[in-house]
Amino acid sequence: MKVLGKGTANGAISILHSLGLGKGCSIGIELSTEVTLVDKETTISDDRHGLLGAVEKCWRSEGFPLPEEFGWVISSDLPIGQGLKSSSALANAAFRALNNGSWTGLSDPDIADLSVAAQRIAKCTVTGSMDDTWASLQRGWKLVDPTLSSSDSIILEGEIEEDYCVIIILRGRRRAIIAEDSFRLQRPIFERSLASVMSGSPIDSLSSNGIAVAAATNDHLALRISNLLIASGAVASGITGSGPCISVLCHKENKNMLRDKIHDMGLEAISTRLSRSSVLEEEEAIGWE
């Protein structure tokens, strides 16, 4: 198969869940998804929402060029359906591959708008995931209003300068039913999380957001795990997305000790770090005529 285009995007963890107050914030991590556009049809085994079909539909609706025959090849180290923004990463990487192969010259805001539209069509998001989509495309965090276009959505942005280790506690695919009313009932805790972001303390927001999401999804075990890890030396800990994954930020010297505690609980974990690349590089592609 001939490579027509390639694109990469990273996963992310939540700082503020947008269902709570209508504003969301996430930050990228260095677990990524790469999508390769090839010149033959392929079978994708794990695209249960049909997101790549929605990507193609959005691309065609804009009148952008597509080859007569093509397929997708996906390589990813992102766990799927666990709150690590795998849908945003897949949509972003696919649009970057199309952009790369067609020399369309789209900017990150253009790709963000397309990715949100595709995720809405595929029904793999409740809010549109604008905060997750931005975090998957660029370094740092952005507090956004998901009802607005990508360029207009950004309320506040910044970076976490310290090079924290990130531990992701894996707890299987999401089983909880996401009820918007349950999130709204936790408004006071989400307001505390929002206040932390607005004051430039996204790390504090991550933990308080985790409390609110745990309450909204009745995931009391996640709250107990997070509290234990913070008491043991973690800088922050909380559910990411709507769960069930738990994200933990810590200093390097505490990583192994915290990993051991997680292992003693009978839980699996992976280690990564916050995304540091400003724009993920795209390889030179052959393209198509």
Explain briefly what this protein structure is:
This protein is an alpha+beta fold and 289 residues long.
What do you see in this structure?
The protein has 289 residues and is α+β, with helices and mostly antiparallel strands. The protein folds into two domains: 3-158, 2-Layer Sandwich (Ribosomal Protein S5, domain 2), CATH 3.30.230.10; 165-273, 2-Layer Sandwich (Alpha-Beta Plaits). Helices cover 40% and strands 22% of the residues. It has helices at 18-21, 51-61, 86-102, 108-122, 130-137, 150-153, 180-184, 187-198, 202-216, 220-231, 252-264, and strands spanning 3-16, 24-38, 71-76, 141-144, 154-158, 165-170, 236-239, 246-250, 268-273. The strands form two sheets. Strands 1, 2, 3, 4 and 5 form a five-stranded antiparallel sheet that branches. A four-stranded antiparallel sheet has the order 7-8-6-9. Helix 2 crosses helix 4 (108-122), helix 3 crosses helix 4 and helix 4 (108-122) crosses helix 5 (130-137).
